[in-house]
Amino acid sequence: DEGTNPQTAEILMKTVQVKYTILIKEDLWMKETVNDFQFLVGQQAETVKHRESLQLKSKKAKKEKDNLTTKANTKVERVEQQLLEEKRIVFKKSHIKPRWLAEMSKTNGNPV
């Protein structure tokens, strides 16, 4: 009878031990895998938070850049306007000839 054979019982016992050991190792492997997965999910959540933070900083920086660009353009326009005004004044003054120069041009450059 095979059920009572000591060698068969020993073989069955070792088979059970091996299977049990494999199950324990698989269980540990699954737990490690779950832990790794949870860690990766946590890392991904941190990455998403970091990305959102960077996007927010980027939006703020763009807004600041736009504000500074607007201020700079306004300043440039003011300076250009001021220069145009000064040019007009200089141009008007340059068309006012001294009397002696006006007299010389009437007499073709001969002093009066």
Describe the protein's architecture and organization.
With 112 residues, the protein is mainly α. 87% of the residues lie in helices and 0% in strands. It has two helices and no strands. The protein has helices at 6-94, 99-106. The mean pLDDT is 86.
**Number of helix segments?**
2
Radius of gyration over all CA atoms, rounded = 47 Å
The helix-strand sequence is: HH
pLDDT < 50 stretches? none
Distance between the termini: 153 Å
Shape: rod-shaped
Mean pLDDT: 86
Which structural class should the secondary elements be placed in?
mainly alpha
Q: Residue share in helices?
A: over 70%
> Total number of β-strand segments?
0
How much of the sequence lies in strands comes to under 5%
Question: How would a textbook summarize the main sheet?
Answer: none
Write the layout of secondary structure elements.
Elements: H1 6-94, H2 99-106
Quick tags:
single chain, 112 residues, mainly alpha, 2 helices, 0% strand, rod-shaped
How is this structure best summarized?
The mean pLDDT is about 85. The protein is built from 2 helices and no strands.
